[in-house]
Amino acid sequence: MRSCSAGGGPEAARAHPPEQEATVAEQTPPTYDPRHPSPEHPRRGEAGSRRLTTAQGLRVDDTDRSLTAGPRGPVLLEDHHLREKITHFDHERIPERVVHARGYGARGTFRAYGNAASVTKAAFLATADEETEVFVRFSTVLGSRGSADTVRDVRGFATKFFTREGVFDLVGNNMPVFFVQDAIKFPDIIHAGKPHPHREIPQAQTAHDTFWDFVSQHTESAHMVMWAMSDRAIPRSYRTMEGFGVHTFRLEAADGTTSLVKLHWKPLLGTHSQVWEEAQITQGADPDFHRRDLAEAIDSGAFPQWELGLQVMPDTPDETFEGIDLLDPTNIVPEELCPVQRVGLLTLHQNPDNYFAETEQVAFHVGHLVPGIHVTNDPLMQGRLFSYLDTQLSRLGGPNFAQLPVNRPRAEVDSNLRDGMHQTEVHTGVAVYKPNAVEDDEPTASPEDGFVTLPTPVSGEKGRHHPVSFRDHFTQARLFWVSMSPVEQAHIVEAYTFELGKCFSQEIRTRELSVLARIDTDLAARVAAGLGVPVPPPLEKEGVTGPEEAEPSPALSQLPTEPGRVDGRVVGVLVADGGDLSVVERLRSALGDDGAVVRVVAAHGGEVTSADTALTVERTLLTTRSVEYDAVVVADGTAGTPAGDDARTAVLIQEAFRHGKPILASGDGAQVLAAVGLNGREPGVHVVEQAADVLGPLRQDLAMHRSWERLAALAGVTGR
Question: Annotated catalytic, 100?
């Protein structure tokens, strides 16, 4: 396992009228006002006089930075403000998760290739062909359990490895960066994104004032917001979604050498997304779209797979690589600078038997580590080490959540932890401590093969620090923008325009446009044009730097450069009684071996018949929408029938066209396309004479996911 070469280190306050003095005769008992619990010491005063305090009334000096030992040291346990803020946040919702409430899980295995042995002694990674049981939970972040799957949001990608050395949890997302650099601001960004507390709307979306107010003022969010406004935030399926560990980990090899590492999940089906209108339609047509897709794929034997990859970098004293601060969770390391080395294969092959017992009760924790894997002083990661454990105490009723079947380690457990709520183990013995002189079978420590924290030096003055290297908020946001294809850039512009168009405050819109102008003037101009407002000057913010010009990183673009696999892709075939049904069997025969699914669509339920052939109808025009399909085929014999003449057929084809999906018609199916203005000369639209000719053009387009030339033309841009 090679390490990449080291490089150079480079709402406003609410005003209240002044209280009038009252004579003794005029005095009456005070009326309780929750905003003024004490008449002598009101919590709110004149505009601008409010002071942020703890729950105990202690004024806070800084709520944006955790207390650390020096600018780059670990977060200190004595940070009472951090602990109070996150503890309160973790206990806001019972029992639903505060974040990542909407999720779906699956069981599987992870098989190591063995090539990671040079960088880590973690057996599940270092031992060739070792298989480890896993449970994976995918999720959205902001929405409640009842929200839709395909909202624009970050997706959680959390994996629990039941290794023979203990449980390791890789608790990541489908985006490699985050909104804030320090965990002390995590409650703030989530509160800003959640529904407004007075009306509990909008649900599961960020197209509202408080979110954009926060991110436009906390400009460290600029990079993550760019990802959230991209197609990455509306994945086609969990199966076609990348995953990232977000933070930098420190790996330790058997010989004691260490490396700084970022972890990636690479889907073997490629990384694909929906387009925005498609995602919106899906929210209404099938709010369970992603969980249904995953469950059906596993049930059908099309097991989703990802490879785990490592970006391995030298463990230098400054913990940077090519001028990129590896402790800043708003940074990526471009794959062109440090390639991702693939070290194992994850396969999901079993759906849960019970959603609550497994998917709802699975408990992840960033601090679940095994020998060979260590955390770093990333201040967001350090806060998560506290937050996740604290959350489980609230959600799962006590400290014994590890005894639940979905969480139970496969390694032997022998601890001196006792009692507590939901205790299921029947412990014996009287000495629950060590050393003791009353029992001779006490468990002993394992300094040779146990987890030993690396003795890294820690020094520095206590304080709420903001390292200088954390102050470049725009270079990586620009890197992401310039790495996108014209089509992807058009989608980002559309997303910013939609979201900011939902804000009521012009001040917030203007401020965010100033942030965009700092990233790229063309991006800001295009969004401003969509909003119908002038472009403000680039944001100037004291202590914040960037952007520096960046070379594009092709790995950030989702556009495929070559045809990919079609496992689980769905082709909808519109047929009619008396028409050519052979196209269905031809497609099933040709695509079935590749794992693609062909579904029969008709104007009615039951069966469609033709001559001596009968096919079961799987979807009717009443029960289907275009979002179910990755490609649409109109069979010969459909024109002039109820299926061909139905207005819903026109809608299905028009939507598939706008979403860039392959469309094919055989025989008189061309007349159905012509009725909605398609002649077969459009990119990704094909007209063939007979069923035998359908496969060639369809297979190629399906493997490219969409017709990118058509999407570019629809977006009014040149190039893919």
Answer: yes
